[in-house]
């Protein structure tokens, strides 16, 4: 069960129903509409669909069953969160404390046989719902790869240590679906999280020949050529230059100093929950995600080109500079084009977001015309420098 504030408050609702006198009236006061509406407004819909698309379905089922088992009336009242309500503030603090526990509590979600609801109504099952159910059933039988578990754990630990951001593995995987991450970047992050690229210890398998096993060692610094080595420790020309360019662009745009790590790179789309110790804006979140992921992926591409196409020949510092600026400028152009293709309110919102993300990075930003995002005739590029 994912440890979040929402889960904590849902468990509080279940616990209250379990320990309260079943003959006494019970009033749940909550700021969480998700739990409230799951057992009231949307209960019929979720029940008909077999709770397939519900987050923590066993918890929701248990809340419904425990509430129905009570002989007295149970009511729910919504209050605005973070608005000074004494009980709500205390509940938020307790939920947050529970979410940060290193070891989760055991939650009793057992349901009496007579109140157990299983399956979904055929009349309500869509193709999407059926595929979702099949995916959940298959996923439950698949064991997580050891390498994947270790890499995901490292990302989560780095986020906690570097930025004081606490996330669950599910949050990391879901962040890959955000619009700010391009399809190519999404594929690269997915492969890297699974440690699926043929680098490092993958070449040291027993069935590999001695010649192939030599591919495991970096020809420049003599270390095992893992993805961690490629991104964070290799002395080949390009890696440190790219990270230096990232730091310069980020701090010049108003960001606080931050070192690249598994968490700040692969978890870049999660960092907006806490940037520099404070909650960041959407523009800041997206700016860091674009710069960090683009930079890391460029290091990977430079390594591949050096080893495969250039027969080990290193790039010059100027070449690395030019390639980094070209990568970032291509993304700027893509964001402008996407905004121009949208219509109505979506276009307006996207233009505003593009302006907020990119304006602090642009060369001569103050001299640009008001409609620079939409006007393809206006030449726009990021500031050069750093590295």
Tags for this model:
mainly alpha, 387 residues, two-stranded parallel ribbon, 16 helices, 3% strand
- What's the main sheet like? 2 strands, parallel
Topology pattern, helix = H, strand = E: HEHHHEHHHHHHHHHHHH
Number of distinct beta strands:
2
Name the structural class: mainly alpha
What does the overall shape look like? globular
**Major β-sheet strand ordering:** 1-2
Query: Percentage of helical residues?
Result: 40-55%
Radius of gyration: 25 Å
Strand content: under 5%
Query: How far is the N terminus from the C terminus?
Result: 44 Å
Q: How would you sum up this structure, described in words?
A:
The chain is mainly alpha-helical. Helices cover 52% and strands 3% of the residues. It is built from 16 helices and two strands. A two-stranded parallel sheet has the order 1-2. The longest helix is centred in the last third of the chain and has 28 residues, at 282-309. Residues 273-280 have low confidence and may be disordered.
Which helices and strands, and how do they pair?
Layout: H1 5-19, E1 26-30, H2 33-38, H3 43-48, H4 57-69, E2 74-78, H5 86-99, H6 127-141, H7 146-163, H8 169-175, H9 183-193, H10 210-213, H11 227-233, H12 239-252, H13 262-266, H14 282-309, H15 317-341, H16 344-358
Parallel strand pairs: 1-2
Helix pairs in contact: 1-4, 1-5, 12-14, 14-15, 14-16, 15-16
Provide a quick synopsis of the model.
52% of the residues lie in helices and 3% in strands.
């Amino acid at each position: 069960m994912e440890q979040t504030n929402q889960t904590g408050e849902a468990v509080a609702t279940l616990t209250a129903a379990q320990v309260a006198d079943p003959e006494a009236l019970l009033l749940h006061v909550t700021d969480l509409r998700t739990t409230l509406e799951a057992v009231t407004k949307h209960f019929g819909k979720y029940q008909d669909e077999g709770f397939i698309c519900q987050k923590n379905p066993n918890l929701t089922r248990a809340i419904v069953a425990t509430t129905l088992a009570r002989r007295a009336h149970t009511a729910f009242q919504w209050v605005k969160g973070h608005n000074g309500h004494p009980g709500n503030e205390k509940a938020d603090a307790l939920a947050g404390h529970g979410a940060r526990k290193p070891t989760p509590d055991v939650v009793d979600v057992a349901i009496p046989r007579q109140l157990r609801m299983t399956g979904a109504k055929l009349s309500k099952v869509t193709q999407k719902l059926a595929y979702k159910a099949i995916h959940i059933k298959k996923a439950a039988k698949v064991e997580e790869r050891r390498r994947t578990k270790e890499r995901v754990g490292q990302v989560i630990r780095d986020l906690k240590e570097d930025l004081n951001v606490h996330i669950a593995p599910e949050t990391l995987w879901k962040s890959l679906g955000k619009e700010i991450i391009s399809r190519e970047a999404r594929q690269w992050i997915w492969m890297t999280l699974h440690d699926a690229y043929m680098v490092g210890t993958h070449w040291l398998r027993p069935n590999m020949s001695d010649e192939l096993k030599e591919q495991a060692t970096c020809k420049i610094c003599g270390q095992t050529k893992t993805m961690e080595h490629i991104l964070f420790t290799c002395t080949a020309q390009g890696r440190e230059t790219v990270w230096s360019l990232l730091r310069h662009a980020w701090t010049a745009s108003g960001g606080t100093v931050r070192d690249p790590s598994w968490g700040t790179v692969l978890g870049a789309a999660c960092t907006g929950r806490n940037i520099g110790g404070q909650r960041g804006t959407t523009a800041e979140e997206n700016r860091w995600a674009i710069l960090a992921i683009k930079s890391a992926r460029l290091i990977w591409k430079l390594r591949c080109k050096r080893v495969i196409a250039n027969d080990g020949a290193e790039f010059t510092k100027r070449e690395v500079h030019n390639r980094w600026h070209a990568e970032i400028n291509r993304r700027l152009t893509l964001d402008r084009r996407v905004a121009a293709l949208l219509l109505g309110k979506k276009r307006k919102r996207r233009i505003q977001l593009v302006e907020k993300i990119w304006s602090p990075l642009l060369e001569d930003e103050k001299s640009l015309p008001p409609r620079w995002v939409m006007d393809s005739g206006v030449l726009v590029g990021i500031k050069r420098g750093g590295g």
